[in-house]
């Protein structure tokens, strides 16, 4: 049984290294958006390259995050976590030194691999190391400090872009890793490493990532209108069906199909797909709108986003407590509708938009909607399966959210009619943004309708989330098994 106490020196070291590790991956999910216009100008990149700068990272992270948790169980959680931190730092160094867009995209894909190794490992180390009496508080502190990192990320990213340059958005990860990895080796106890039965679902992970890659490529390159793009899209869909077939017939699947026999679990994941597709599209285009059209600096655009993460940090726990009392149906219905209203309010953001009058009201409404829905969504996911599979359920939900954001970043510019150089023209981008926001709002309304029709009250005594303090925007918080099992 794990016996490290939170108040002990070792407990504080464990908390520090897991917060540093998870913050590295969380920051890169948010701050890169702020740097996109400057990256595009410096590397002479078109809109498709900017989409890939975001999506290359999300693709490998979403496709491999479940496998990353399993690797920790098999070979040791500390070992895999440290490998992930070092891998992430080296990939970040390549990003910072990239001479052109193609190299940056390739390095971003490598970053996602590192993120898939360290993201589930950070929570798993807490679950496996701390004494049961301290575990919930340790998870809460880890979640809270990680949320603070997510909140200040866009601000720091904007400051770096306007100051020493966008490359430092990536290079900053190197000194963080130089602190994190040695602390982990010296102070974090090893756990796991005993699960020698079964086989890794490498084929399933490969097919899932390949399907996402092919579909994403087809959506981003669709404006070219070539027959090859259509064939690649069809191949992506076929690969997706192959992934489902493989998962149904493997003895140890990465994503066991029987977990979707729970109607509640399936419904909440459909809500997740709708909600996080809208979020992914909004935060990709929103930061561009503030800089390209409204004329904000990178620092001002990053600072403008603080209300959403600030509200998440302050009120997520209270929202979770309220959902415990009234059930998840109302929060999962009202939350997406508030977010949809916030995105429609963003239509007021145009040339020379005033922050207090035009931008802030939209972000406050959006933040309130996110506060309302994120904690209940996580609680409902965990309550939909047996306790022994809670970590797996959370990992699937997190991967679904990241995949939804990935597809949205690829598809939304296409649907909104953005050309390759749209971000270089304020008028063209503003017109496309005005077409994109109602689409995002429509996705949120669809999520609200699904929740209202399908989500029912939770059974008494069901498992509640431990990560109630949450400031992340890219995906719901990961939740591990109480015993430190697989994510």
UniProtKB/TrEMBL annotation:
Instruction: Establish whether keyword Transcription is in the entry.
Output: no
**Molecular-function GO terms, alphabetical:** transmembrane transporter activity
Q: How does it sit in the membrane?
A: Multi-pass membrane protein
What keywords are annotated for this sequence in UniProt? Antibiotic resistance, Cell membrane, Membrane, Transmembrane, Transmembrane helix, Transport
Where is the protein situated, by its record's location annotation? Cell membrane
GO CC, one annotated term: plasma membrane
Provide the primary localization: membrane
> Which biological process, per GO, is one annotated for this protein?
response to antibiotic
Instruction: Tell me yes or no: is Acetylation among this UniProt entry's keywords.
Output: no
Which residue ranges traverse the bilayer? 12-36, 48-68, 80-99, 105-126, 138-160, 166-188, 200-220, 226-246, 267-288, 294-317, 329-347, 359-383, 395-416, 436-455
Domain Major facilitator superfamily (MFS) profile span(s) in chain numbering: 14-459
Q: Which Pfam families match?
A: MFS_1 (PF07690)
Show the NCBIfam families listed in the entry. efflux_EmrB
Q: Which PANTHER family match?
A: EXPORT PROTEIN (PTHR42718:SF42), MAJOR FACILITATOR SUPERFAMILY MULTIDRUG TRANSPORTER MFSC (PTHR42718)
Entry protein name: Transmembrane efflux protein
Organism placement in taxonomy: Bacteria, Bacillati, Actinomycetota, Actinomycetes, Kitasatosporales
